[in-house]
Amino acid sequence: MPIAGLCTIILSACVDLDTLEILLVLVGLYLVSLLLFVCIFLVLKVVRYCMCCICLVAAVEEKHPILPCTPSPCGPYSICREHDDHAICSCKPDYIGGPPNCRPECVSSSECSLDRTCINQRCRDPCPGTCGSRARCQTVNHNPICSCPTGLVGDPFVRCVEAPSKHG
After folding, report:
1. Are 113 and 123 in contact (CB under 8 A)?
2. Does this model's pTM top 0.70?
3. Terminus of the chain with fewer CB atoms < 10 Å: N or C?
4. Domain carrying residue 22
């Protein structure tokens, strides 16, 4: 309700009052409305300030994405997968051990049994494809040894053939 309307209602109720008393009532109403205006102004200031604070707090509290695999906690020769904001570590294919201690099967033949050789970081039989046709391959101390079986002769790295007959 506008103040003028409020004053009219008050004046009609104050018919019996003299001018000074009416003037005092009006001044009182004016002061009350002024006080109300100041209170509303201050409340709005506080609300704006608080809203600003809420924005700042929200900005500070904004969650940063969790990247559990950056940097990888898994160690060398490993794979890091993210699952439910946790790092799941495993060794790369063809590597042995467990994270963070994944490693190749071998880096030198001395890490393999005597009948195997370290080939591409794996302990393998060195014989396939090493010797010639019909030759025999045997691994001795990590090395392939090619020889022609009994009854055959030739270069065991190329081919072994039937020995020529001694009969003539």
Report:
1. yes
2. no
3. C
4. 3-61
